[in-house]
Each structure stands twice: as C-alpha cells, then as structure tokens.
UniProtKB/TrEMBL annotation:
Transmembrane segments: none annotated. GO terms for cellular component: membrane. Belongs to the disease resistance NB-LRR family. It comes from the Eukaryota. One of its GO terms (biological process) is defense response to other organism. SUPFAM superfamilies: L domain-like, P-loop containing nucleoside triphosphate hydrolases. Pfam families: LRR_14, WHD_DRP. Keywords: ATP-binding, Leucine-rich repeat, Nucleotide-binding, Plant defense, Repeat. Residues 222-349 form the Disease resistance R13L4/SHOC-2-like LRR domain. GO terms for molecular function: ADP binding; ATP binding. InterPro entries: Apaf_helical, Disease_R_plants, LRR_dom_sf, LRR_R13L4/SHOC2-like, P-loop_NTPase, WH-like_DNA-bd_sf, WHD_DRP. It comes from Capsicum baccatum. Residues 90-162 form the Disease resistance protein winged helix domain. This is Uncharacterized protein.
Length: 361
C-alpha cells in the first residue's frame, strides 16, 4: 500500500524499514493500513526513517494501542481536512452515506477551500477531499448502491477517533435526555433518537443554541412524529442554520416561516407526508441543495422555484405523486444536477427538457 504501483524493488531499504513499521503496528490490519496511507505521502528514505524512529516511538510508549496509531494518522491530516473529518462524528457507527450527500454538506458548511485561481469548481475540490480520505483509509466502500451513488462508511475505530477529536462544536444527541446537556458552544448537532410529538426538545435547548449552523435528524424509525409547533419553534430559533436535514418524520404541513432561514444552503425533507411545499421556500436565495426523497404524497413543487438562484442540486427520488415540474425550473442557471427517479413525470418530456439545458445531468 505504501509503495504504490509495485515500486518495492526501487529501494530495498524502504522495504526493510516498512517491515519494521509493520512489526511496530502489532499486526493490526487497520493500523497497518493507516501507517501505509501516511507513508504513501513520504517519498524519501529519510522521511521513512523519521516516521519509524520519531512518530512510531510514541506508539511504542503508548502500549501499541491501535488508537494511538490512528491518532497519528489524524495528526498528519491537513487542517482543512480535520474539520471535515470531525463533521463525520455526527453520524452513528456503521452509518452508510453517499459520497455526494457528504461533500454537498461540507460545501454547505463552508468547509471547502476553493481558490480563485483554481479551474476546479467547488464540487471537484470537495470530491478531492473525499478521495484523500479514501487514500488514507478513513472511509471504506460498502456494497450498497442507489442509482449511480456509491455508499461509504467509517470503520468503528475510525468513528471512535472522529468522536474523540471532535470538539464541543459537534454533538450527537443519542437520547432525549441529551438535549439538556448539549454544550452551548455546539454549532453542528445531529439527532439520533426517537421523538414523539412536541416533547422532542426542552425550551432551554432553543435558548442555548440560537447559533446552531447545522441540524441533522437521522433516526430511521417510521413512527417519529414532529409536531408543527416544534418545527415552527426550531425554524424561528435556529435562524443561522446553513443545513437542515429532517427525514422520516410524520408531518403534513411545512411552515411558511421556512423562508426566514436566509442562510440555509442545504435542505433535506425526506419521507414526510406533505403534499405541497410552501412558496416561501423560494425566498431561500442561498439554497444550493434541495432533497425531497420518499415524499410519496408530494404533488407540486413551488411555482416560483426559479427564484432559487443558487440551487445546484435538486433531488426528488421516489416522489410517486409528483407528476410535473414548474417551467421556472429550467430558468435556474446554477442547476447542475437533477434527479427525478421514480417520480410520475413523463420521462420523454423530461429528457427533452434536460437536453436543452446543457449543464444539467
């Protein structure tokens, strides 16, 4: 792994140094892969010797704990990758996520450093971050696919590391009682617990976290119910949100106050029992991603959707009642990706429309 392209024979000294490093890793496969990923970035014999004698010496003193080796891998991450890695602590262990879902979330949070001199767009830069994680064995590919999307997950120990290095900016709410102990400094939160009606969040949660930038509700239970009053309170309290992910919630009404989230860049509304979206949604001029997966009763998109001037990705998968899309959609100059799989839209007409707008895939 560390040599790449079978170049072991080019330097027999590196082979011997590599064998010593493997021995110091204690035979732990994940630790060996992590060390190998680091060494791929080091080209000279001196760098390998320094890694063995200096970096790995701390591992030996640490009792050959594989977590010490993984921390070393994290410490070698560039700063711009560290916050993306910490962000992954919001997801539960063994959670499978699509590559483009993750990188568009990073983009929405402003984690991607796209330079003015670069010819790559921000999605290309974000994808390069993800590929860097793959090369470092921080993500592993799963066997799951959906349409053209490949899913990935973290090894359990890598996930433990992400939880360990994430500071108080990141917090996962795993049970209802946790809502009382979320640090005030938290900017990015995820909910992994079952909710029922209006009892999801105490008043103190709203008061203490008005600066929240991301809220991700990930519970997969089909019986989760979020009351209209709770949703209204969330929207009015968390006015600085850049990302709002609410899935698998039984709710039939989406408040007009949604249009007040002027900083919102990413909105996911999945598995809701809603039939229409409020037209106030079109006031979200910074919105880049709109996901409406599994909204089986959704019949219409907002007629003024053309006002979403920053929209780059629109995903409406398995919205079986959606029979047509507003003409204004084709006026969106920023739109790069349109996914209407398993909707009731005339496929021939849709194909003709997409062909006329050269930048949509």
């Amino acid at each position: 792994m560390a040599f790449g392209c079978n170049k072991e024979s080019e330097n027999s000294n590196l082979v011997e140094i590599g064998k010593e490093i493997v021995r110091k890793c204690g035979g732990v496969p994940l630790a060996i892969r992590s060390a190998g990923s680091l060494l791929r970035l080091k080209r000279t014999e001196d760098e390998w010797i320094y890694f063995k004698n200096k970096d790995l010496s701390s591992i030996t003193r640490g009792g050959n704990d594989e977590m010490v080796i993984l921390r070393l891998s994290y410490n070698h991450l560039p700063q711009h990758l560290k916050i993306c890695f910490a962000y992954c602590s919001l997801y539960p262990k063994d959670f499978k996520i699509g590559r483009f879902d993750l990188i568009t979330m990073w983009i929405a949070q402003g984690f991607i450093q796209a330079t003015a001199s670069s010819t790559d767009n921000v999605e290309d830069v974000a994808n390069s971050y993800f590929m860097d994680f793959l090369r470092r064995s921080l993500f592993q590919e799963t066997k799951e696919h959906e349409s053209f999307m490949q899913f990935y997950k973290m090894h359990d120990l890598i996930h433990d590391l992400a939880k360990e290095v994430a500071d108080r900016d990141f917090f996962s709410i795993t049970k209802a009682e946790d809502t009382e102990v979320v640090p005030e400094q938290t900017l990015y939160a995820s909910g992994l617990f079952k909710i029922d009606g209006s009892s999801a969040f105490p008043n103190s949660f709203y008061r203490k976290h008005m600066k929240l930038r991301a809220f991700i509700f990930l519970n997969q239970s089909s019986i989760n119910v979020l009351s209209n009053s709770t949703l209204e309170r969330m929207i009015s309290s968390f006015s600085r949100l850049r990302l709002l992910h609410l899935g698998h919630l039984k709710i039939e009404f989406l408040s007009q106050s949604l249009g007040g989230l002027k900083h919102l860049r990413y909105l996911c509304i999945s598995s809701w029992s809603i039939s229409t979206l409020p037209n106030s949604l079109t006031k979200l001029h910074n919105l880049q991603v709109l996901k409406l997966d599994d909204c089986g009763k959704l019949k219409y998109l907002p007629k003024d959707i053309w006002r979403l001037e920053s929209l780059r990705r629109l995903v409406c998968r398995r919205c079986h009642s959606l029979t047509h899309i507003p003409q204004g959609l084709w006026q969106l100059k920023s739109l790069m990706h349109l996914d209407l799989d398993d909707c009731s839209i005339n496929r021939t007409l849709l194909k003709e429309r997409k062909a006329k707008v050269y930048n949509i895939i």
